Amino acid sequence: MSQAFQSICILRLSAIGDVCHAVAAVQAIQRAHPKASITWVIGKIEAMMLKDLPGVELVVFDKKLGKQAYSQLKQTFKGRQFDVLLHMQVAFRANMAARCIPAKQKIGFDKGRSKELHSLFINKRIAPQSEPHVLEGFAEFARTIGVEFTTPTWEMPVTQQDRDVASKLLEGLDRILVIAPAASKAERNWLPERYAALADYAHKKGFSVVLSGGPTELERTLGAQIQAKSHAPIVDLIGKTSLKQLLCVLEQASLVVAPDTGPAHMAVTMGTPVIGLYAHSNPKRTGPYLYQDYVVEVYHANLKQQKGKDVEQLPWGTRVKGHDLMAQIKTETVLAMFDQVVEKESL
Q: What pTM, to 2 d.p., does this model score?
């Protein structure tokens, strides 16, 4: 499909990390089809991060509006028809949204990744892939419309003002370690005393330690617990930045440590090394894309214990369950990875 497209619609509503992956594919599409108008149907929070993305019209789908969100989508696209819709999300909510987007072709995932009636809302599929990272799935959508996609690159829509705010928040700090401690579910978080031990170790190694995250009670509580258990001076930015400002904080960091959470992938888009901490999901599928060698994980061992099979013998993306799995990630292992990354990246 190398024909010239006049109009392309992207459908990927959430989440922050996945949207970060999708940006790389969208911007590759822009370079390959410079004359095409590109519209992206996206979630409300994710749109806050990508507002003013160069050359892209963002159409916000606010799931909190319920049925009204679909009505608004239909109204927005009344009288329009896209050459192609790239339907990059298999969740039922996204599938229903696809019904409201008029397009000559609707390209979705291959049968192996289709679920929640995804197949009913598309008329073409991307090629199957062997054990792909989420980003590679999105890259295949770009390839399906004639785009050469190799190493991903990002141009995130931050302004000098965003960078200035971040610089002010980080004023006086050098060799910054950002710990983004909280995932969307508490069971995916590492233990506060172990984050604190990492903060203490990094401080002794000459790093300034910063906590980052959103304004939720879970994140604020975890941040407070880390500070209470640490002896290092810690700059607490949890709940104190917009998503764009957080991108710039992550950009100015030397290194980021995070579990399976959006800021890990935000850091990747800004070119900052990430140590990812994983227990429940396969980091080869959802880990920090450019820094998978820096992941500390107990996923594979738990998968084997719970399922009695290795990852190659199970459906790709199989998750493991348990509320205390992250406790299996030892402090010494993370500190050793910290030293390894500092040396390798010359931080």
A: 0.97
